[in-house]
């Protein structure tokens, strides 16, 4: 199994849709579908149950997803160590799975103009790790959202976004101009896995214990709302499927977009990245 094919598989498994996965991977859908079919043939197991509306993981697919994430994490760690040993000018940036943020595109363009000779590597992460692999040594700097445990980390605030409640478009709450947390007390919320940073988990639960389906990715959050009528929180201003709506939450602290790096890290590439990010997010 090639690492590239495993990355393809993880993208489809997290998006649960070949079209969205192809967009995320910056490729067309036919070669992605062929690669997954070849992987299934090589393993002798069906990894996805396909339907006109998308795909779901089979039992074999769920096992492979867990193992593939571990293998790719290890491969990323090896790449970082080898590049460091070789003295290559490389920076690895972790980005929370929030691909609709226009600030990221502006920052990417600004950084390429300012540092054309730097080898930039991106690690897209799910919602279970708000530091995007920083604590595990997989990235040099992370573009993410606060709050989370900031112990031994340096944090630069880039922007604040108001937060809203994501509901189905046909939910009675969708017709409201604004909501309060008390309006959601009897609803199921999507949950992050138990080993997720408790500060991060608490914020997205409105600072109180909730019950609901466990999710790992933005797409799983949206599907939980669509299929189960679950509610959850999301920054305002992001594009959503037409079947969903977001209603401003009046009594919720805003979500902060931040750049994060390890405290005491003197890598000049990180320092320049932070300054370029600060400027890019002001516009």
Please provide a written account of the structure.
- With 283 residues, this protein is α+β, with helices and mostly antiparallel strands.
- 38% of the residues lie in helices and 21% in strands.
- The protein has 8 helices and 10 strands.
- It has helices at residues 3-15, 18-25, 29-43, 59-86, 102-114, 198-204, 218-228, 268-280; strands at 48-51, 54-57, 90-96, 119-125, 141-146, 153-161, 163-168, 232-235, 244-248, 255-262.
- The strands form 3 sheets. It has a 5-stranded mixed sheet, sandwiched between helices.
- Strand 3 (90-96), helix 5 and strand 4 (119-125) form a beta-alpha-beta unit.
- Helix 1 packs across helix 2 (18-25), helix 1 crosses helix 4 and helix 5 packs across helix 8.
- The longest helix has 28 residues, at 59-86.
- The N and C termini lie far apart (43 Å).
- The mean pLDDT is 89.
Bin the strand percentage.
15-25%
List the helices and strands in order: HHHEEHEHEEEEHHEEEH
Shape: globular
Rg of Cα set: 19 Å
What is the tally of helical segments? 8
Helix content: 25-40%
- SS content category: alpha+beta
Poorly predicted runs are none
Number of strands: 10
What is the spatial order of strands in the main beta sheet? 4-3-5-10-6
**First-residue to last-residue Cα separation:** 43 Å
The biggest sheet, with number of strands, parallel, antiparallel or mixed sense and barrel status, is:
5 strands, mixed
Q: Kindly state the mean pLDDT as a whole number?
A: 89
């Amino acid at each position: 199994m090639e690492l590239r094919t495993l990355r393809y598989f993880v993208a489809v498994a997290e998006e649960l849709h070949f079209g969205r996965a192809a967009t995320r991977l910056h490729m067309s859908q036919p070669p992605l579908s062929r690669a997954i079919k070849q992987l299934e043939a090589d393993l002798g197991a069906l990894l996805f149950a396909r339907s006109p509306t998308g795909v779901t993981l089979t039992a074999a697919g769920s096992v492979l997803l867990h193992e593939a994430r571990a293998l790719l994490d290890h491969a990323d760690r090896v790449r970082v160590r080898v590049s460091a040993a070789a003295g290559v000018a490389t920076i690895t940036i972790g980005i929370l799975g929030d691909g609709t943020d226009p600030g990221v595109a502006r920052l990417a363009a600004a950084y390429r103009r300012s540092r054309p000779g730097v080898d930039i590597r991106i690690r897209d992460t799910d919602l279970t790790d708000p530091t995007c692999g920083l604590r595990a040594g997989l990235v040099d700097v992370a573009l993410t959202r606060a709050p989370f445990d900031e112990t031994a980390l340096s944090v630069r605030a880039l922007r604040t976004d108001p937060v809203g409640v994501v509901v189905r478009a046909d939910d009675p709450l969708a017709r409201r101009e604004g909501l309060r947390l008390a309006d959601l007390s009897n609803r199921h919320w999507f949950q992050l896995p138990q080993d997720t940073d408790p500060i991060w988990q608490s914020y997205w639960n409105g600072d109180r214990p909730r019950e609901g389906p466990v999710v790992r990715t933005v797409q799983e959050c949206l599907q939980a709302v669509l299929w189960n009528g679950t509610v959850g929180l999301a920054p305002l201003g992001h594009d959503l499927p037409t079947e969903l709506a977001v209603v401003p939450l009046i009594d919720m602290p805003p979500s902060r977009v931040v750049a994060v790096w390890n405290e005491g890290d003197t890598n000049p590439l990180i320092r320049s990245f932070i300054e370029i990010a600060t400027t890019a997010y002001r516009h």
